[in-house]
Structure formats: structure tokens, C-alpha cells
Amino acid sequence: xxxxxxxxxxxxxxxxxxxxxxxxxxxxxxxxxxxxxxxxxxxxxxxxxxxxxxxxxxxxxxxxxxxxxxxxxxxxxxxxxxxxxxxxxxxxxxxxxxxxxxxxxxxxxxxxxxxxxxxxxxxxxxxxxxxxxxxxxxxxxxxx
Length: 144
Description:
Blueprint: H1 21-41, E1 66-70, E2 76-80, H2 90-103, E3 109-113, H3 119-132, E4 137-139
Parallel strand pairs: 1-3, 3-4
Antiparallel strand pairs: 1-2
Helix pairs in contact: 2-3
């Protein structure tokens, strides 16, 4: 009895490798997208926050600070070493503050806002002051 041997079919072992190249490509694209969109998500006005409690600044250290006041009714007042009782528009504040800061760039800019004023008014005036060239704006408050 002779048995006929058939040629055995080659058995292929399963391939256990994972091709990670497409995943790396996708991750690089996502990284670029996040890097481009992240700066657009942060909006606001730069504010210098104090690092620790400090004492009020003495008057002799302030050489005529520029004070902008916002009343409860939403009127703006610009005070530079004198008491001005006439309300002023935002555009006019921007022009005048820009001129003052060009002549004296170290002039301190302070913002006084009424407790009942809407936050939007404060953001508007801080934006105008920043566009006029104010590097930092101090917020005036009363001690508790």
C-alpha cells in the first residue's frame, strides 16, 4: 500500500505587527491644529496681579497719576492731577491718554470703577487704555 503524499500547504503564521505610521500622522496633524487654535482661545486684557500683599503707594511716589473713573451711570471721567467734573467719551479718553503717555511714558494709569457698574464697562475702558499705550492699569479699591 502506497500512500500518496500530498504536498503540505504552507502554513502562514499570523502577523502580530501593528503599523503605527498612520497613527503618528494623525497625532501630528492634531498637534498642529491644537497649537494653532490654543492662542485664539485665550482672550482678555493683560493685568499685572500682585505677588503679595503690599502697602498703599505714598503720594510722593506717584507723580500725578492718570485716573480714569467710571460711575454707576456708566459715565467716564479723566483726572490728571485735577478734578474734572465733565464726563468724557471712550474715544476721547483713548486720544488724550495716548498723548499723555507719549510725552510721559512712565505715567501711572489708575482705574476707579463703581461697585455697581457692569463688568463690560471696565473691560471696554481697559481695552481703550491698552490701545492708547498703557503698559499696565492699576485698579483702585477701598480698604475693607
